[in-house]
Amino acid sequence: MGSTPTVGAPHIAVREITPADGEFLVDMVLEAVNWEREHHTRRGVLGNARLSRYAVGWGRQGDLGLVAVDLDGPRGLHVPIGAAWLRYFASSEPGYGFYEPGVPELTLAIVPGRRRLGIGHALLAALIARARESGVRRISLSVARDNEAAVRLYTQAGFVSVGEGKGPGGTWTMLLEMSDGEGAPQSVGSPPSASAREGTTTSDASASASSAPPSTSS
C-alpha cells in the first residue's frame, strides 16, 4: 500500500508497517514505555522479552499496523514519525494489555516534537478502520493511569476500562468493542479522564498501549 495523506495534515501520510520498519517499531516501544521520563534504554527494550515481543519479527500472522510519515523529509525521504499496530499474544505469554485469547493488543507512539498535533488521533482512527475491515472485533491495550492524554485519546475512540492493568505503577486495561452484538464490556471503575469523552480537544498520546507502563524497570 502506498502512503495515504491524512486529513487536515497535507504533509503527513500513513502507510502499512513492513518488516523493514522493525528498528522503528523498537524505537516506538521505547517511546511508549518512556512516556513520562526515561526509564528504559533501547538496549533494555531489546533485552526484555516482555517488551521486545511487541516489535520483533514483524509480519507474523495477525500483525496489522500503520506508520505515519513526514512527506517533507530531507532529500524527499518519507521519515517515520509515529506508529500504531496490533499484535496477538498467547495467554501463556500475555502482554500488559492482554484481555483474552483472540483479542489483539494495541501499541501506539509518536516521536517527540510531533505530539499533540492530531497525528496519534489520525493513526488510531485509521488503524481501527483497517482492523474492522480485516475482521477484528475487539482491541485491548494497557495505559498508565497518569497518562491523561493517552486515556483521553482512547476514551474518545470508544475504549472503556475493563479492570486493573497487569503492569506495575498503576495502569488500566482498556477494550474497544467494535461489533454490534451482545457482550460488549462494561466499564470497571473510571479512568482519570473518562469524562473527556464529551470533550472536543484531541491530544496525541506520547505513549500508550500494550507496552510496559513507564514505572516499570523490567
Automatic annotation (TrEMBL):
Residues 12-179 form the N-acetyltransferase domain. It comes from the Bacteria. Keywords: Acyltransferase, Transferase. Residues 200-218 have a biased composition (Low complexity). Pfam families: Acetyltransf_1. Residues 177-218 are annotated as: Disordered. The keyword Transferase applies. GO terms for molecular function: acyltransferase activity, transferring groups other than amino-acyl groups. This is GNAT family N-acetyltransferase. It comes from Miniimonas arenae.
